[in-house]
Structure formats: structure tokens, C-alpha cells
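Service request form, structural biology core

Requester: graduate student, group of Dr. S.
Request type: structure prediction, single chain
Budget code: on file
Notes: please return the result as C-alpha cells.

Sequence provided:
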Amino acid sequence: MRDGMTSEAEGGIDAIQGRARAVGAAIADGDLTAAVGFVTGMPAPDLADVIELLTPEARVRLIEAQGTTFDFEVLSELDPSVRDQLTEALPNELLARAVNALDSDDAAYVIEHLDADDRREILSQLPTVDRAALERNLDYPEETAGRLMQAEFVAVAPYWTVGYLIDTMREAAPDALPQTFTEFFVVDPSFKVLGAVDISRLLRTKRHVKIEEIMNRDRTVVLATADQTEVARQFRRYDLMSAPVVDANQRLVGVVTVDDVVEVIDEEAEHEMKALGGVGDERLSDSLRQIAPNRFSWLFVNLLTAILASAVIKVFDATIEHMVALAVLMPIVASMGGNAGTQTMTVAVRALATGELGAANVVRVVVRETAVGLFNGVMFATLMAVVVLLYYGSGKLGGVIAGAMIINMLAAALAGIFVPLALDRYGFDPAVSSTVFVTTVTDVVGFFAFLGLASLWLM
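Core staff response, request fulfilled:
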């Protein structure tokens, strides 16, 4: 280690941050040899983290300075926006070497957003078989199993024996097989999947036994055009480590492995979390030009809904003038409703994303959330009625806030479940759009219920 820095395994993110500062300082001083020395021997995921923390110019200089020692696996570990910036800046010759060294799925990530001319130039430098496999990946839409799959797999005939398969594997050229795999796919002459055999099962079987006798005939397959989120659900449901990918004619074209599915699950969870906050898919590496317009649009929608809530308050301005306590208490009603609605909405959005909420159980979920809203409404209404009675000495005012809180908590529960359901029904992403509508409902209903009841009972 250099300059007393601890290893990444020992220091975690602090060590990564320290390494990035040292590399950045060395590059700024023009000492590329020192910069390369700081990152020599780092695992690909750690080096990717270091590169993401550097400036765009420093990233390119570091990679070019590493030359032939650069681990191309790093490119597949990078944040997509950083990877896209690097592929635009790095020479096509280097990218061609990277694509040739990576598995087809990772290679597709590297060049998928390049200009058509640059992509053709890179592909032209690949061996024919590798180029065909990569082009097939790129022909499928983004976020599908076809784009996610590896074109490298091992297919065997059902009439082969265990011994013949083992001998064939031993005699095959090193580059004729995937670097790592966990099972063999059994196919017929038209390359339709008949089943699969785990390596562990193969090694426990005598040499004379035929593959068809030990293969798993109920192997889960996925269509190349299937959405990657649906693929992830199948992996989670059936505890899969890998799954064969077939085209429209049911012919085997690739394999999806669990490491790629884990990334999909992480991406989906991150997307939902950011969408609920109204920040879309922005990343720390994004520029001001990329971030500001998206945030502005959602803040503008929020402004419009806030104006709507203010209009409700304006209707009751005379009521508020007669009793200043109303202005003090009404934010409590709206705030409690907003928080309750967000709780229900979060559960509903997540259940929709995982397929747990649908026509079969929607009534039960709505009844449950309504009951929860009513229970919490009554409990907090009672609490606030007592507080208002003790502080303001007015039982009527306590009754007003209690009634308004019950109404708004019920509205929050219903909005939190029905808004995501409605958005999903009409093809909109509930994670992106639900928050602004749910908070609008709770603000408008909360203010209207509180000030309306005050006008009726107190004025």
C-alpha cells in the first residue's frame, strides 16, 4: 500500500475516497506513473468506484496511462452515465479490445449508446463469431432478457453420455467455452431446450449414464423479449441461479445469470426510491443540465398543487380571521394526512412493482388500508382533541380538529392505494407520479375538512 493507506476491504468507502483523492492529485501534478501505481492490483469494482470519483478528464487519462494493464471488467462495473462518458472519450481501438475481452452482455453495455458509425467500427475489429453474438444482443430492446443475456453457454445433446461430455469439455479449446458456468443446457437438433444438467449432478453420475436420464426437464426458460423486471421476478420466485433464453421460435440463444439479475433488482429498487422523491434516474455524476430540468418540472407540478391547496384556504379566510388558532392547527391535519398517505402509497407502489398487488387481492388490501386509516384517525383525533382542550380550553375546537383528522386520515388511506392503482391501470409509472397526487388529496381534503367543520361548528 502507498502512503499508509489501508486496503479497501479494511477501510471501506473511506479507503476508496482516499485512493481517489491520491489518484486525482497525482494526475493534476502530471505524475501518471504515481497515479497508475495507486490503482495497481485493485479489484475491478473498487477501481470502478475510484474512477467514478475522478473528474471526466482524469478518468480518461488514468485509463489511457494504464495501457494494456487496464482491466476491462471495470467498464462493466461503472455507473452507466460514467461509462457512457468514457466510451465517448476513449479511442475505438481500446474499446474494441475491451469488447473482445468481455462477455457479450457486458460488451453490449459498453457500446450500446455509441454512435452507429463508432459501433460499426468497433464491431468490425471483432472475430466473426463474437461480432454475430454481440450484434444479436444489441438487436433486442434495452431492459429485456435479450439485452441482459450472455451469448456464451454450453449446449449438449440428450443422447451424449456423462463420460463423453466430460472428455469433450477437457479437449475443447480454452476460448470455446464460457469462462464460468454452472450448468449444461440440453437441446434437440433444432436447438430447442429439452432440459438442463447442473455440474454438481454431472460430477456425481457414472460415465456411462446418458444426459437425458439426469437432466431437469422442468427447466424455467425466459423469452428474449421479456422485460428484465419480469425475469428478475422469475429468478426470485424459483430461486434460479441461471435461466436459458429463447427466441420467438423457442431456440436457445443465450443465458441470464444471477449476477446480472441482482443488478436489475438493485436498479429497480433504486429507481423506485428516486422516483418517489421526484428525482427520476439522476445520479451524482450527472451534470447540472441533466438534473435541473427534471427537478424543475416536478417542482412546478408541486407548485400548482400548492396553489390549489391555498385556494381552499382562501375560501375560508373569514373563518380564519375570527379564530387565529385555526391557522395554528390546520397544518397538523394536512401533515398527518400527508404522512399517512405516503405510508400507504409506498406499500402499494412496491406491491405493484413486485406483482404482489392485483385484481385478485385489491379489495382485501383496500379494506385493510381503510381500516388502518380509520384506526389511526380515531387514535390521533382523540389525542389532538385532548391537547386542544387543555391548551385552548375549547371542546368545540377539539371536536373540529378530531373530526377533520379522521376524515383526512381516511382520505389519505384511500388516495394512497387508489392513486397508484389508477396510474398503473392507465400505463403510468406509479412510483414517479403518485406522490404529487396523494399529497394534493391530503392537503385539499385536510384543509377543507378542518376549515369547513370550523365554519359550521364555531362560527
